[in-house]
Amino acid sequence: MNTKAPPTAGPPHRDSPQSAQALLREALDATPDNVAVLDAHGMIVMTNIAWRQYAMAYSPEPGQITPFCDIGVNYLEVAARGDTPQDNSHQALQGIRDVLSGKIEAFSLVYPCHTPEEQFWFTMTVTPLDWKGELGALVMHTDTTPRHHLSRR
Question: Any idea what the CATH number is for the domain that residue 106 is in?
């Protein structure tokens, strides 16, 4: 008779994909910048706390994340919809595509993001990231409004 208890499911092994994703989420949640992880097709597969808080704060639906920036949404399709002469959507879209294709190592863009009450400027930085064995991207939006105001003095 075997008296040993069957093995229980413990924490993921340090080198497992689940562990890597958990570590990534922990690291992203520690940054104050708004961050999303995109898969190889531009789909948002992970966001950090700052991203979700920002998406709720500026959502047209009180208490809900803005529908076009949540997990499961294709970031590239959303960027393509905003392609007007007065915004930087085309540049952002091309930069993300170039990182996802491996054409460039990183992309950065400073852009305005104003609300009716206040003017903001952000810097979007896109860097490659392995996501489940494919080339994905880390998209980070940093509020650079104070730097923008200083440079205008």
Answer: 3.30.450.20
